[in-house]
Amino acid sequence: MAHEHGAGTAGRTRLAVALSITAAILLAEIVGAILTRSLALIVDAGHLLADAGGLGVALLAATLAARPATDRRTWGFARAEVLAATAQAAVLLGVGLFVLVEGVGRLLDPPDVAAGPLLVFGVVALAGNLASIAVLTGARGSSFNLRAAFLEVANDALGAVGIVAAAIVLLATGWQRADAVAAILIGVLILPRAFVLLRETVDVLLESTPAGLDLELVRAHLLEQPHVLAVHDLHATQIATGLPVLTAHVTIEDRCFVDGHTSRILDELQACVAEHFPVSVEHSTFQLEPERHRAHEHTPHR
Q1: Which residues contact 79 (CB under 8 A, 6 or more apart)?
Q2: I need a surface site. Which of 10, 93, 157, 191 has the fewest CB within 10 A?
Q3: Going residue by residue through the chain (302 aa), what tens digit of pLDDT does each one get?
Q4: What domains does the chain contain, in order, with CATH numbers?
Q5: What does the DSSP 8-state code read for residue 208?
Q6: Cβ neighbours, 10 Å, residue 23
């Protein structure tokens, strides 16, 4: 049975549109940063540069993930979206830390910022980011890749809101530190979201058990199946979004290998992990073993 994992054609189209919008906003913010000397705008432009690169990598990863599997790459490039999302999250963390350090410096020694042009460029950036959010909203849950892309443009929109707010404060009060405060708030918004995404994608790369899948419950339920005596070497990992896999050695009664029960037991085990748990595992591999085979196991694992 064929499955399509990752962003798909619609997801790739959304990424391409979001990338085009982000690139246009980036060019506008570079001009604005030069004209206004605003740290918030400089930071947001740097953030957008990272995001544009991230969206480009995300688009490349989504395209690679759609390529078919081969004898050399049996899962194809399905994990490319996880690698891309990890890279994006790492870059966002770096940008967030830079913002905090530079923002504190500007709080101590604030430069003059042109408030009027800052407001104009902030509104332009916000409008573009809202357009990108609208493009990505419908597909943000379909893969790590699209989730990372949506996270980036959502953070960009929040950054644009901070720029607009800082410009309004500057126009109303002349308080130059408003720009640095806005930049620091952008950094504070970036860091926790980037950290959560990085932690989740690293879990996939470390082949941790997929979130929402309790292996002790899986083991207990497998042991409840008829003729099953023991379950060991039980492992569950995740190749990419929506692609969990599970393997296990299952000891069954010796007579099942004589009376033809093995094929029925295998069907029941695979149906168990595919249908019984919140995380449906359609790719499962079970090694059925007779009782006497336990003596030949060198280093059995849980």
Answers
A1: 204, 205, 239, 240
A2: 10
A3: 344 444 456 667 877 888 888 888 888 888 887 887 777 777 777 767 767 776 777 777 777 767 787 888 877 777 777 887 788 788 778 878 887 887 888 788 777 777 888 888 889 888 988 988 888 776 666 566 677 777 777 877 877 888 888 889 988 988 888 888 888 887 787 788 788 888 888 888 888 898 888 999 999 999 999 999 999 999 999 987 778 999 999 999 988 888 888 889 999 999 989 888 888 898 999 999 998 776 666 555 56
A4: 8-205 (1.20.1510.10), 215-296 (3.30.70.1350)
A5: P
A6: 17
